[in-house]
Amino acid sequence: MTDNNMITNSTGIIKGVSAVVFCIFSFVFLYFYQADIIAVAQHVLSGGVTSYNKAVGAVLITAILMLLQVGISSILRLPGVFHSMTYFPSLMILAFITSVSSDICKGFSWGIWPWLSVVLLVLWLACIYVMSQLKSDNMSSGMTLFSRQMWVNMMSMGMMFIVTGLVGNGNPVFHYRARMERMLIEGNPDGALLAGKRSLETNASLTMLRVYALARKGELGNELFTYPVKGTSADLIPMKGNGVEFLMYPTDSLYRFLGAIPYYTKGSAKTYLQSLVNSGKASKAVKDYILCGCLIDRDIDSFVKNLIMFYSVDNTLPKHYREALILYTHMRSNPLVVYHDNVMDTDYEDMQRLEKCYDSDKRAMAHALFEQYYGTYWWYYNKKDM
């Protein structure tokens, strides 16, 4: 085989391997990591008219970017060792469409992309010119898959993949919110609650979503504090001016789930929930919204007053309500309700003893309590003092 044939054959292998690697990266990046973010962007930009299918979207975007690369490669005809640079425009576009702002619901903005893309393309063209003037080294016979040229291409593509991933939206809370809303739209509250389940990062909007998903399952009083909670009772429902909002999910669906769409969305969540109770339009979930709102605010006295209106005080109460009653019974000298449970009383007293053991070391106490009591209302209630 002549040297020219060897180089042509090796260049073909480099192109084929590069194409496979790019397609795998693009599809995985779009389908498994950025699908929900693109769905939010499409929802906002289309005014909610269109929706994004992550499988179709990943395939279609990858195919378009690949066609762009093929066109650029056929025009530039770079030496095989520099072939990876023909993927730069495709990866720049991929970075752009996944760099959605976490504040996109407040208004779309191009950000720095208009001038940054011009600068990057100019620099890329300058590099392309220099590379086109260089000659490719001879390939090593029989070692095309492990040649220096192949590894230079793979390393270059790897670096561009890393940059693309860093430029794309990596805000974990925004990802959790987007995924939760997609699951809720699909009618899958269990799938929604898996988003960020093992993460402690949250915000008021994510807490609002979890409250809604748990309420749909009828598990709000049992599981709310097994997730990180942020915000107050005012943030349980999207109301005008409270800063809590859905990204894609229709707010009216939440209102209908609770009982009725409010005439005015400028009021407070508490006022809205109480109006549902007073009008007789409240769904079963409203009582748990009111009670969990009191617990989130650490308003233990209001919680008890509302609890005796909505539930019978016995061992069938949801877990967090029983924990709150144990706390209330131990805290108040003249409690409105006295509640005891042998197991929970023992656990609570053990927690008090643990607090005393670390009384002089707040940091150690916080760590010990987190390890043993995170997921209980007691831990949440005492967290303010840590």
From TrEMBL:
Organism: Xylanibacter muris
Record-given protein name: ABC transporter permease
Membrane-spanning intervals of the chain: 12-34, 55-76, 82-100, 112-131, 151-174
Swiss-Prot/TrEMBL keywords: Membrane, Transmembrane, Transmembrane helix
Alphabetized InterPro entries for the sequence: DUF6057
One Pfam short name: DUF6057
Keyword Transmembrane helix tagged: yes
Domain of life, per lineage: Bacteria
